Amino acid sequence: MFNMDKYYLGIDVGTSSLKIAALNDHLQQLSSKQIQYQYDEPAPNYKEIDPKIWLNAVIEGLRAIFQELPAEYAVAIGITGQMHTTVFLDRAAKIIRPAIMWNDTRTKDLVLPVKERLVKHLTLQENAKIISTGSPLINLLWLKDYEPLSFDRLGQVLMPVDYLVYCLTGNFSTDYCDASTTAYYDFTNDGWSKETFNLFDLPSEIFPPINAASTIVGELTDEMMGLLGIKNKIPVVAGTGDNATSALINRSFEDQIPLLSLGTSGVVIIPNENHQLNSIGKNVVVKVNPQDQTILTQGTVQAGAQLNSWWLEQIMHQSNFERAQAQISEDRLGKNSVLFFPHVNGEKTLFNNPDLRGAFVGLELSTTSDDLYQAVLEGVAFALKMLADAMQDGEKSDSYTIIGGGAKSKLWQQILANVFDCPMNHFRKDREAVEGAAMLAIIGTGSKVHSSLDLPDVVVPDAKIAARYQEKYQKYNFLCKELIN
Fold first, then answer.
1. pLDDT in tens, 190-212
2. Residues 94, 159: Cα–Cα separation, whole Å
3. Of the four, 73, 403, 411, 466, which is 20 to 30 A from 41 by CA?
4. Has residue 48 got a pLDDT over 60?
5. DSSP letter string over 140-183?
6. Do β-strands 7-13 and 74-81 pair in parallel, antiparallel, or remain unpaired?
7. For all residues of the chain together, what is the average pLDDT?
C-alpha cells in the first residue's frame, strides 16, 4: 500500500524557472509547481540575478503546495539546482550584489592567467583543468579585482542551492558536488583547498561547511514557517547540483550508464563508483551519503536544446516543434549536405574558448529551411559525440540514457542513436532533477525509496544510417578544426 499520509518536497532552482514537486516514497508525484523568472544582462557578457527572486519563488511555490497538501505531512525538503552561479553575502548574511550566473562570460580574460597559476602546482591540476568563465573561483577573483569594496564585505560565498538552504534553515552549508566544481576544492582530501586560498589570498572563513547531499543540515526557521503559513519545522537536507540529482533519479548511479542531457545546454555525464578522476571533463564528487565514493565526470556543450527553440522561434517564428520535425523523414537522416557548428555561446569543456560562435557550412541554392533545421539537430548530436568520445578516451559505451526536454523528440532520439551508433534509453515518464531532490529528502530521513523505474524505450541505430552519420561525423571533426583555428 502507498503511504499517502507522508510526502517529500523537492526544489529545483533553474536558470529561468524554479520547480517544486511533492512526491511520496514510491516517487509518485502528488503536486508540482513552476515559477518563471528572468535574469538580467546589464552589460555585454554579463548575466546576473537577484537571489531574492529564487527565495520569493520558493515561498510562492511552497505556499501553493501547502494549499493542496497538508503541511504537517511534509517529511523533509531537498534542493537541487544550477551549479557555479555564485551568491555573495556580507557578514550579516545580506546580499551584497546580484549573483553572477554560470553562463556569464565577463571573466573570459581572467581564465588563462588563473589557469596558468593553478597549473604550476601539482596538487591543483584538477582545478586548473576545470577553471572557466562562470566558475566560482573566477567570479570571486573578478569581484576582488573589479569590486574590491564588495569583496571586503564578504561573509559567505554560496551556490544557489546553498543560498536557499540558508534562507530556509538559517544554516550555512554546501555539498561535495557543488564544492568540487568551484575550482577551490581539494580532491585528495575531499575538502576546501587551503593551497588555493593561500595562492589567491582568499579568506577561508567565507566558505561554508561541506556535507553529503542527503545530510539533514537544519529545519525551517520560525520566520520561514510564518512566511509559509505553517507550524511544523520541516527538516532540510544539504541538497546538490542538478546534474547529480538527474543522474540519481534516472538510475545512472545504480546502473553505471552514462547520461546525455538535452536541456538548455547539452551535458554528458559519466558515472564511476571508484572515485576515479577522468582527464577531460569536470570530475564532480557526489556523496549522496558520507560513505559514497561516486565520481560523475561532466562535460558540457554550452548550447543544447535551446538551439531547437532558437531555430524555430527566433528564426522561423514557429512554435509547433512536432509539426516542424515531422517534415524531416527518416530517409533524410545522414544525407543532409549542410553541417552546423553549434557552439554559438562559446565552449568550455573541449575548447575552453568563450568567443566561439556558430556556423552553417555546405549551403547550396537548393538548401531548404528543413535542411537547416535538420543540421541544427545533427550539429548538437555531433558536438555531444565529440565530447563523449573525448571524455571516455575513445572507449565506447554500450548505451546511453537520454534525459531533458530535447530528449522527448523522437527525431532527436533517432539522430543521437545513429550518430553515437549505440542504443539510446529514454524513460516515458520523464524523471527530472526536482524529483531527485525529493529523493534526497527521502534518503536523508532514513526512509526507503519503494519505487523502481519502468523499463525504458530503447532506440537502436540503423546500420545504414549510422554508417552515413559516421562519414558525416568525420567531416564535422574537420570542420571543427578549421573553424577553431
1. 999 999 999 999 999 999 999 99
2. 15
3. 403
4. yes
5. HHHHHHH-HHHHHTEEEEE-HHHHHHHHHHS---EEHHHHHTSS
6. parallel
7. 93
SS3 88: strand
pLDDT at 122: 75
8 A C-beta contact, residue 84 and residue 159: yes
Instruction: Out of 218, 243, 268, pick the residue that ends a domain.
Output: 243
Q: Assign residue 396 the CATH number of its domain.
A: 3.30.420.40
Task: Return the exposure string of 228-252: e unless at least 16 CB atoms fall within 10 Å of the residue's CB, then b.
Answer: bebeeebbbbbbbbbbbbbbbbbbb
How many structural domains are present in the chain?
2
Decide if pLDDT at 2 tops 70. Answer: no
Answer yes or no: do 394 and 479 share one domain: yes
Distance CA 376, CA 338 (A): 9
Query: Could you tell me the pTM of the whole model?
Result: 0.84
The answer to whether position 447 is within a domain reads: no
d(CA 413, CA 216): 38
| 80 within a domain of the structure (yes/no) | yes
pLDDT of residue 4: 57
Measured at the CA of 288, the angle between CA 456 and CA 83, to 5 degrees, comes to: 85
Residues 239 and 312 in one domain: no
* Domain final residue pick, 224, 243, 262: 243
328 and 180 within one domain: no
